[in-house]
Amino acid sequence: MLQLDFRSRVPVYEQLTEKIKELIIHKVLKNDEQLPSVRELALELTVNPNTIQKAYRELERQGYIYSIPGKGSFVKPREKLENSPQKEELMKQLQKIVAELVYLGVPIEEILEIIEKTKKGGSGA
Fold first, then answer.
1. Of 75, 86, 72, 71, which is closest to residue 30 (Cα–Cα)?
2. What are the phi and psi torsion angles at 57 (to 5°)?
3. One GO molecular-function annotation for this sequence (predicted)?
4. Per residue of the chain (125 residues), what is the pLDDT tens digit?
5. Which of 4, 87, 89, 93 is the most buried (most CB within 10 A)?
6. Which ranges constitute the DSSP H helices of 1-125?
7. Torsional sign, CA 111, 76, 63, 22
8. CA 52 – CA 45 distance, rounded (Å)
9. What is the pTM for the complete model shown?
10. Which residue in 80, 39, 29, 83 sits closest to 59, CA to CA?
């Protein structure tokens, strides 16, 4: 389910955080679905349990999961992000990326096509 690149310069917990976010965004992991326990995932991926715990804490901080003491971690149901700081930051990043693509000569139609593919669940690339 999850594959990590141990030779990458990106820390393992960040790779794990991004991969789990991807699974949640693409609805592979459903609302309120329980994630593997820290110990279970650490054994499966052969990483230190503290690394898994750090990734889970980061996912919880970002609002992707929630935890119930003694029960585990679960996928948080998606909420509308009307005026959240996370939405504002992502919008700034998107604006910067679009500006760079336009500067590099990518037609706006191609950018919109990627957005549409992504919206429909495609990879966008």
1. 75
2. -60, -40
3. DNA-binding transcription factor activity
4. 688 999 999 999 999 999 999 999 888 999 999 999 999 999 999 999 999 999 999 999 988 999 999 999 999 987 755 667 777 888 899 999 999 999 999 999 999 999 888 887 655 44
5. 4
6. 12-25, 38-45, 49-61, 85-103, 108-119
7. negative
8. 9
9. 0.71
10. 29
Tell me the two tokens of residue 27. 């609805």
Residue 115: how many other CB atoms lie within 10 Å? 13
Q: How many CB atoms lie within 10 A of CB 106?
A: 13
Looking at the chain, which runs of residues are DSSP E strands?
65-68, 72-75
User: Identity (one letter) of the amino acid at 6?
Assistant: F
What is the four-CA torsion angle of 79, 19, 53, 91, rounded to 10 degrees? Answer: -40
Query: Whole-angstrom Cα distance, residue 123 to residue 3?
Result: 17
Tokens representing residue 24 in the block: 């949640």
User: CB under 8 Å to 33, separation ≥6 — which residues?
Assistant: 74, 75
